[in-house]
Design a protein that fits this description.
Order of helices and strands: HHHHEEHH
CATH class: Mainly Alpha
Radius of gyration: 15 Å
Number of helices: 6
Amino acid sequence: MHPNLTLPLLTAVLSLSLSSTSFAGPRDELLAQYASAAKAADPAFAGFSAVRGKALYLQTFTGGKPDTPSCTSCHGNDSRARGQTRTGKSIEPVALSASPTRYADPAKVEKWFKRNCTEVMGRECSPREKGDWLSFMAGQ
């Protein structure tokens, strides 16, 4: 396949496959951006994985804040249920099935990825990690 056609084809296939998992509009565009960035960072990138997204959600990290070593520290083990911050503030569910309007505003998505990844992992999430997370949440 011609190298100049690979990325557009990957983006089109990704958009079609994810649209069947409850993503629409701005979410498709966001995922396409993440796919493009992931492919630029790793030419072997072959698509997002809900399995990797689930592993990321459940994983314990040591690089971030000690009181938030995992996504589940605040969001809980069930992504379809409400979570709670360390200060007691309620957090809407992160699963798309429970919060259908979540992830529709790319600026908010980026804001929360930056904040939460830094607090939990001690670094920003990679584009692949963001796409994997969204793929997992789309199936929840």
